[in-house]
Amino acid sequence: MMKRFAILVSALALFVLQSQSVFACGGLVAPNGAIRLSRATTLVAWHDGIERYMTSFTYQENNTHSVSNLGWIVPLPAVPLKIEEGGGWTLQRLALETRPQPIFARTLNAAAPTAGVQVLQQVKIEALDITVLKGSGQAVLDWASSNGFTLDGDTRDHLLAYAQGSPIFMAAKFDTSRARARHQLQGDGAPILITMKIPHIWIPLEVLALDGQQVQADIYLLTDIPVNTSDLGAKVGQSAVGAGVPGAQGMKLSFQEKMTPLLYHDLSTDRNMGWVRPDSWLTYLSLDTPSTTVTYDMGITSTGIIRLAHFGTSPMAVVDGQSTHELPAWLPTLPMGTPQYTQTLAFLLVIVSAVFLALRVRARIIAKR
Questions:
Q1: What are the angstrom distances between the C-alpha of 18 and each of 56, 58, 196, 300?
Q2: How does pLDDT run along the chain (369 residues), one tens digit per residue?
Q3: From residue 166, how far is each of 3, 169, 322 by CA, in Å?
Q4: Where are the extended beta strands (E) located within 205-295?
Q5: Going by C-beta distance under 8 Å and a sequence separation of 6 or more, which residues neighbour residue 1?
Q6: With contact defined as beta carbons under 8 Å apart, do 60 and 185 qualify?
Q7: Cα Rg for the chain, rounded, in angstroms?
Q8: Residues 6 or more apart from 346 whose CB is under 8 A from it?
């Protein structure tokens, strides 16, 4: 069955944006205020239990036909504290920071009620109508059908699977009359920023996979500590730049840096982006792989380690259910960028100390006999 999940139930920040990149300083935002990107792009920031998730939903229309029933139903790990307009140039500025590009010269429609679903929030952002729902998978499917979302069998199966992990969903649909009034064009994006209170980062990725198509996405992370692809690498302070993510074919940690003063200025002065911290670490993950290989969602541990789990796993269990992978807490954590010879000496010292202590304990036990 053709998998049209990305058309109807798209990942919260990862769906294919079909317009040309514009990266000159004066061209980061289209004349109508929309943003334009060439790849699926998201920003996820986490600090002190608060996750901020920024993405752009893409308007679909051509000269003769607008897709009036085009929408997205997105799994969420928690009820949002706030949904608002995202920054006007933040996603493009991050792309410019990590992948330098050549420079080129509000009334909300009421949703139809459905038994079994709680409508928790309704928000209007530009031409986009957003509804946050809580309910079982079947109840959300019934609500979607009653509100003009066309669902095929594959879409239904995936939504039901995600509902096993979390009952919270966000439905988004363009109001085509408002879009036309704003002179939005095919490929124009409406940036949204979602704030949620959760213990650690969670990113749904499997829903991006469309049968027969290549999955291409850019994932930007702002975190308190560097993100790493392995527990050992994080402990010894070894940079993961250039490393692949274990278990995720085609995903690579392509760029990482401490927030620079210039980047901090550019991000924090954008619309609704005053929360950006000057001491954050920026990490860029690139994903380019066949759709059949993306069968997972992603989480980030409190120590900055990327974890994967099969889609439909409860959002927090992506990390919390894999604690056995972590190294002992008593092992020292070296600063990022520690020279390799220092890493080797430090861990040799730890091993020698552990062996020495074990021998002393053994000697004392023998002496008491």
A1: 12, 8, 28, 29
A2: 434 443 344 333 333 333 333 222 333 444 444 544 556 789 999 999 999 999 887 766 544 444 455 578 889 999 999 999 999 889 988 988 987 655 443 444 556 666 689 999 999 998 889 999 999 999 999 998 888 887 777 778 888 999 999 999 999 888 888 878 887 766 677 889 999 999 999 999 987 887 778 889 999 999 999 999 998 888 878 889 999 999 999 999 999 999 999 999 999 999 999 999 999 999 999 999 998 999 999 999 988 999 999 998 999 999 987 755 665 555 556 566 655 555 566 566 667 766 777 777 777 777 776
A3: 22, 8, 18
A4: 214-223, 251-258, 281-290
A5: 152, 153, 154, 211
A6: no
A7: 23
A8: 236, 332, 334, 338
| Count of other CB atoms within 10 angstroms of residue 284 | 21
Tokens of 266: 């550019």
Please give the single-letter amino acid code of residue 280: S
Of 84, 106, 104, 107, the residue nearest 96 (C-alpha): 104
Tokens standing for residue 161: 């699977």
Continuous segment of H or E residues that includes residue 163? helix 153-163
Q: Select from 116, 83, 94 the least CA-distant residue to 12.
A: 83
User: Quick one: how far is CA 88 from the chain centroid?
Assistant: 18
- CA end-to-end distance (rounded Å), the chain: 72
Which uninterrupted H or E stretch holds 115?
none
State the pTM of this model: 0.78
Q: Any idea which residue has 């307009």 for tokens?
A: 85
